[in-house]
Please model this.
Amino acid sequence: MNKNKITQALMLSAGMAVAATSFSTLAADVPAGVKLAAKQEMVRGNGTEVESLDPQKVSGVPESNVIRDLLEGLVNQDGNGNLVGGVAKSWETKDNKTWIFHLRPEAKWSNGDPVVAADFVYAWQRLADPKTGSPYASYLEMTTMKNAVDIISGKKSTDSLGVEAVDAHTLKVSLEKPVPYFVAMTVHTSMKPVNQKVVEKFGDKWTSPENYVGNGAFVLDKWVVNERIVLTRNTKYWDNDKTVLNQVTYLPIENQVAEMNRFLAGEVDVTYEMPNEHFKRLVKEYPEDVKVTPYLCSYYYEFNTTKAPFDNEKVRKALSYAIDRDVIAKFIVGKGETPAYNFTPLATNGLEVETPEYAKLTQKERVAKAKALLEEAGYGPNNPLKFDLLYNTSENHKKVAVAIASMWKKQLGVTAVLENQEWKSYLDSKRQGNFEVSRAGWCGDYNEASTFLAIMRDGHSQNYPRYTSASYDSQLDKALTAASDADRAQAYKQAEALLAKDMPILPIYHYVNARLVNPNLGGYPEHNPEDNIFSKDLYIIADK
Model:
């Protein structure tokens, strides 16, 4: 996997001065000589019905895919993952703690209102506000924005957050610690602006098509639950002249085989993913349609460490050791995924990890250790372990769960009862702690190890295992205040070692992104490891 080449703001070490940075936008860049199709409409599979289209109230990939077209943040990414200007035309910092963003005066909301610095202040305060109940509130803690921790915990008011509208087109952000990659963090969905007067007028109903006001390249035209979301071009978007697509439709198809068939029938231009069992055939029969790209994403199971017996690390380790990750990666998914023995994907910028001891053993040796650990925890033939394994509805997730449950049964005599829930219920179960063991996936919000490791910090809103470790949190603190890249990498290495020791999560494999893409779709990004696709950069090529 190629490492992402992030902007200088991400690569500079803490404390170094950064000159003013400016980028031209990346809109659909149609090569000379390419003939465009008369009909510029794209259909994308999106995996499932979205939980919401409110950027401060979502946490999933399907939601982000749609919101990325409806709302534009300070910065975007190009097809290689490099930062390019969004609402911000330039930015600067002298110490990686105080950041100044200069906004485009031509940026407008779809209702004609100007996009101003106060819109970002309002959205970020709303993200931090406990009344919002955002599943991504802790993201602001990760930025170290001033007073974010106290606001999220209800100790301070939202107007004390370290973000300020200096004037209509100047945004000032104050961090408590130097974060050289802060600009890259603003790409994330939760950091998108919202129109204050629209949100306050309509409340939760502001995301309905008749009320939705966005500042992205597209506007919300139709939303038929469990059927489709249709977006049309936003003629008030500041760079509308460079947008080519006129319509984008998202389909919530959970069954990968059904999605594949609709693609092959010409009804879908981009699939959400591919059915694992058909991958090799599709590569052979439709080589131009199959796209396999880097993806900073980890597939794992999480233990609810507040519930017995998963409050016992011996049980957690036994279940982890008994899984044959090579079989899962090579044969159950089999699209180029790699077995995972650590949480953070190895291609992440600035990451150095030490292979855990159990990863160096043969699978036979790991199973032997698993049996011994489970016996020490009081489980065996006379007291068999049985628990529920939760996953969100998906044939691919089901296949992985069936395979792993079979390994546990065969090697340890453990029974995992499979329970699937549709996306919204699954997310709610995890947030409420109503699970024993659950399937999980985490994809990098930016290309730096903290985007993975921080979610296991005590109190983080995405820490569904309820993992608590002062030693672990201390390593993350060291990384944040590290004087050098080497010191930061060492802290991350120690944090990964603690996860392997305590095993609150069970890493299974690191993703690649494999999907079917219409060969006539131009501008598809094949080298963005965060898989951030902006429809404004795409176009349909005429049939030859």
